[in-house]
Every structure is written in C-alpha cells, then in structure tokens.
Amino acid sequence: MSDDPTFKAAMVQMRTSLLPEPSLEQATKLIRQAAAAGADYVQTPEVSNMMQANRKALFEQLATEEDDKSLRAYRALAAELNIHLHVGSLALRFSPEKAVNRSFLIGPDGGLLASYDKIHMFDIELPDGESYRESANYQPGETAVISDLPWGRIGLTICYDLRFPALYRALAESGASFLAIPSAFTRKTGEAHWHVLLRARAIETGCFVFAAAQAGLHENKRETYGHSLIIDPWGEILAEGDVEPGIIMARIDPTKVETARKAIPSLQHGRRFGVADPKAGPDHLHLVRGSA
Questions:
Q1: How confident is the model at residue 14 (pLDDT cuts 50, 70, 90)?
Q2: CA–CA dist 67, 270 (Å, integer)
Q3: Residue 285 included in any domain
C-alpha cells in the first residue's frame, strides 16, 4: 500500500442542458476523461442534471432521489471507475410544489457517502435586470454536512452558500480539511466576486477549496461564469478553468492544511461577540470565548 498521502482532484466544468439526458452524457464524458488522467476525486457543478428556469418545464423533468436516472448512472460510473465522485448537485423532486438542490458524495463502490441540501437560496435582483428567485421552486436545507474521504474530511456546500462564511468556519471547526463549493455563478457576479470569495474561504479556514462551475451561455439564455478553481489552504490557485466545458486537475497534499493552520491559527482564536445597543451604554457589549 502506498505511503503517499496525496491525491488527484478534478473539477468537471459543464454547460448543463435544459434536459437531464444530454447533461448526463456531457458529464459522463468529462468524468471519464478525469478518471483516465488519474483523478481520485471528481466533482461536477451545481445542477448537473438540468439548467431549467421555467417552473412548469422543471417540474415535468424532476424525479425523486429514489427514481432519478442521473443519480443511478453516476453511482454506477463511480463504481466502474473506482473513484470518489461528487455530484455537485441535482435538481430533484421534494414535494408536489417544491424541488430540492441536493449534492451527493459517492464512494468508489457506488455507495452514497453523504448528501447535502443547499441551505442558502439565491433570491436576488441584479443591477442589469437579471433576477433569480430560487426559493420559489426549491426547499432550502437546514443542516450542514461533513463527510470522510480517505485523505481527510470534506464539507459539502453549494454555490450561494459561498457568501456565508460562518458555514465554512463551522465545517472547518468540525474537522473539514476540504471544502466543496460546486456552483453556477452568474457571469456578472462571478467577474466581481468569484475568485476573491473562494480564496477567502480557503484562507479563513486553512482548507483546500474545490469549486466545479457551470460555464458559458446556456440554452435558457442564462450565462454562467465558469473558471472552476482548486485552491490550497494558503489561498493559492492550483488550477483554474476558462469559460468552456472541460476538466481541471491538481495534486492535493493534505499536509498543507496543518502547515497553513500552524502559520495562521485563527481557528483556535475564534470568539463570539454580543452586539452593543448604543442607547444602553457600553456595559451591554459582551464577549464570550469559544468557537464561533
């Protein structure tokens, strides 16, 4: 058995279709490429099965987790290729009125190691007129999820979660060495914030960040930013995609997590702050030691 603690991580960058079948075909081809190049852990982007904005069309295509053909195919593919396959997320039926945006970590035997429902809903109106109301169609998750890989623990998150740093600190304090952030960032917000937010999450937590992304102009006319990233715990970009579907890869050395956290031990120095009411005077400001 090898004493090498490192592994190869690959991010699959996609331009998901309106329908699950062509999306699965695209992803499968790229996952096979990554595995052939030696990847041990492969991640796909958010909504790997379909990029569908129309509510009626979305619900016509939705399946439950038990019946979803894409998930079944991904589990078989992980077992065939003997890899850890992280499906960034699938749109699945949650109830007659709601879908769920669910991530799956699949083991080399095809078994489900963990699943995570996106907690933070992307409800926003951009200055250029673009608007998104994810909560109209999707039921938000309520629980943060961490899971074991052979090389350390990984925290599962999705896209808009990226803007809520407390989630990532909680995952790091719970033992995560890797943070998964599969995404479908818009081009406009990606150009402004993608790199700086992902690097910040890595630096703040001393974790590797794995972020597979959607890229380019989709059939529904939504434009996503691409630039899938692999970032080390010091905030250095190890690999970056462009704006076309493809794969990026990097060799991951988990020992860098401990090195970064020894250099900047901020996880050990966290405190909880009360908030002062200026009208009540300074005595109302208090500090509680402990993890945030």
A1: very high
A2: 44
A3: no
What CATH code is carried by the domain that includes residue 254? 3.60.110.10
Query: In terms of DSSP bridges, do strands 287-289 and 229-231 run parallel, antiparallel, or are they unpaired?
Result: unpaired
Task: Identify whether the C-beta of residue 50 lies closer than 8 Å to the C-beta of residue 63.
Answer: no
Average pLDDT for 208-219: 97
In a domain, 52, yes or no: yes
pTM: 0.92
Tokens 């803007």 belong to 163
Tokens of 52: 């569908």
Catalytic annotation, residues: 46, 118, 159
Among residues 180, 205, 113, which one has the least CA distance to residue 150? 113
Model pLDDT for residues 91-142, shown as the tens digit of each residue:
999 999 999 999 999 999 999 999 999 999 988 776 666 667 888 899 999 9
Reply yes or no on whether the pLDDT at 288 is more than 80.
no
**Where in the sequence is the domain holding 75, given as residue range(s)?**
7-266
DSSP conformation letters of 37-55: TT-SEEE--TTSS-----H
Question: In this predicted model, what pLDDT tens digit does every residue of 47-103 receive, in sequence order?
Answer: 999 998 889 999 999 999 999 999 999 999 999 999 999 999 999 999 999 999 999
